[in-house]
Amino acid sequence: MKTAVTQVPENMAAIASRARKMGLLGVLQAVVADLFLGRTLFQWSYLLVLSSVPFVLEFTNGAANHDWVGLFTSWTGIVCVIMVAEGRASNYFFGFLNSVIYFALSYQNMFYGEVMTAIFFIVMQPVGLYFWLTARVNGVAEEEKTEFEARKLDLKGWIKWLGFTLLVWASFGLIYQSVGSARPFRDSITDGTNWTGQFLMTYLYREQWIFWIATNLFSIYLWWGTSLHMQAMYWVYALNSAVGWYQWSKSIKEGQVA
């Protein structure tokens, strides 16, 4: 019986085979389609308005020096989560950029829980992309389409992932306590919610959005008074998470993510 691990070489070969079949031009066309095509006027307006928030804040806050790093971190994060809500695999490119920069900012501000979360996200971006491409190669005939099948948790799934969240929270809390963190179990809250949210996202479960909302609300508190860009980013995240929940719930009823 094949497992997910033993299927990795086979799936990678299938992805590579599909890419060779498409050719360089076909792959580029698929990337462009995933980035730009298939949006309604409302979706374009939503993307442009929310992704402009970091720029508006940067150039209207009256600060003497511009926070370009915070601006870029906030912008890439907002674009990433909107693309997740739309069901676009290119979200992982923006997610990787955002995670690398967020790691540096969190380390600079000594938010060690956020540092560990950023490392986890950096690792999970290529892993998530692998799962999404595998689902597309195995289940979607036309590469340029961005649809995939969203799923929802049953009671057993809820118990499993809530237990996983508590395990991650407690484990990292003990780790931070061992290295002298002043508030170890506060710092590990976002580890629990982020890890679960990322795994549910990778496996295409709608309930990821509940864990993202919890992460976003706590992160607003964490960054309060420290970085205006990070606060704004998480407020937009929270709004987009609510929209994502609605879109994925609707897509489950319709049988696909549009």
Number of domains: 1
Shape designation? globular
* Largest sheet data: none
- Global Rg: 19 Å
Question: How much of the residues is beta strand, in percent?
Answer: under 5%
Main location: membrane
InterPro entries: NMN_transpt_PnuC
GO molecular function, one term: nicotinamide riboside transmembrane transporter activity
Keywords: Cell membrane, Membrane, Transmembrane, Transmembrane helix, Transport
What does this molecule look like?
By secondary structure, the protein is mainly alpha-helical. The chain has one domain (40-254). Helices cover 76% and strands 0% of the residues. The protein has helices at 8-36, 41-51, 53-60, 68-86, 91-108, 112-139, 155-178, 184-187, 189-202, 208-222, 228-254. Helix 1 (8-36) packs across helix 6, helix 3 runs antiparallel to helix 4 (68-86) and helix 4 (68-86) packs antiparallel against helix 5 (91-108). The longest helix is centred in the N-terminal third of the chain and has 29 residues, at 8-36. It is globular. The two termini are 33 Å apart.
Strand and helix map with partners:
Elements: H1 8-36, H2 41-51, H3 53-60, H4 68-86, H5 91-108, H6 112-139, H7 155-178, H8 184-187, H9 189-202, H10 208-222, H11 228-254
Helix pairs in contact: 1-6, 3-4, 3-11, 4-5, 4-11, 5-6, 6-9, 7-9, 9-10, 10-11
